[in-house]
Write a structure and sequence with these properties.
Two copies of one chain form a homodimer. With 155 residues, chain A is mainly α. Chain A has a domain at 3-81: Multidrug-efflux Transporter Regulator, Chain: A, Domain 2 (Orthogonal Bundle). Chain A is 56% helix and 0% strand. Chain A has five helices and no strands. The first copy, chain A, has helices spanning 11-18, 22-30, 49-63, 68-80, 85-126. In chain A, helix 4 packs antiparallel against helix 5 (85-126). The first copy, chain A, starts with 10 loop residues before the first helix and ends in a 29-residue tail after the last helix. At the A-B interface, helix 3, helix 4 and helix 5 of A face helix 3, helix 4 and helix 5 of B. Chain A binds a DNA duplex (30 and 30 nucleotides) through helix 2. Chains A, B: Residues 8-77 form the HTH merR-type domain.
Chain lengths: 155, 155
Amino acid sequence: MANTEKVALSIGEVSARTGLTTPTLRFYEQEGLLPPVRRNAAGRRVFTEGDVAWLEVCAKLRSSGMPLPEIRRYADLVREGAGNEAERFEILRRHEERVQQQVTDLQEALSVIHAKVEIYARHLVAGTADELWRNGPECDRVPDWSADSAQLGEA
Amino acid sequence: MANTEKVALSIGEVSARTGLTTPTLRFYEQEGLLPPVRRNAAGRRVFTEGDVAWLEVCAKLRSSGMPLPEIRRYADLVREGAGNEAERFEILRRHEERVQQQVTDLQEALSVIHAKVEIYARHLVAGTADELWRNGPECDRVPDWSADSAQLGEA
DNA sequence: ATTTGACTTCAAGTCGACTTGAACTCCTAG
DNA sequence: CTAGGAGTTCAAGTCGACTTGAAGTCAAAT
């Protein structure tokens, strides 16, 4: 109803606004993330503000790792209209959980990495004359085998 | 020197302990993340505790998205020994930054997703009789074209 | 003595999400 | 009137990181 739906956008403009490339936009349409997009007389795609808004949602879902088939399913449900909210909720909730887990895992990795960064940073300001550094940081040594002759039980 | 380096582990045991599959372990060796692993008389790989520790570092770097070539470079530097700490630092610091950015992005996506989850949750407890729900959540509507005839400037 | 299970190598296949290429159509500007 | 730029389709290619398959070796258990 609002004038906003009357604004006609070319694929290039949508690309500029969403950050998705034009091939990606066509690909998303083909994959059913978007319903078949309107065409003008010349057969070119005509997008609306509503499309852009929806594409931004899709982009967020994708960038947080939701697989295309799952986004397609969600899009289908939304398009179907009222009555399937439980499944939509389920999809989003599951994804939220996964992303939360992902954040947690990354933060754990981050703390390991940060610890190493700190160690190197301290070493570098201390300079090469650092006495506690003879063989590099305790934390981090690619094993090499010069002084080891253990065998695996000959099995 | 410690006894810990004398413990001999089979590829299966290392797999169990690191969570990396045996093909992945061979692949990592081949890719130079690990120096060529010792073999016993039968030609089988013999890993040490030190290998496991290093593999755990690699696994953290990988799971946080560091590409194999970069991990290989880092491994090479560590193996090379003292004198290249500045580059090691650089690699880790850059990666830390990327991961930090990734976390930030995920958290932003998370807030969008969580908002939607909340909307659906509220709708579902309110039940179908919800009056403000005629056409689904404002936030989230796959545009369909039934009532729109805007054209792209015939270009 | 043979079967089992864990290991070996090497090559080839898989996966998802795009990206790229080739060939074509339009419209506008010079 | 032709050159450019943006669009179109369809098919094929790319990427990284593994995974899988085929074929073989070896040592212990039945």
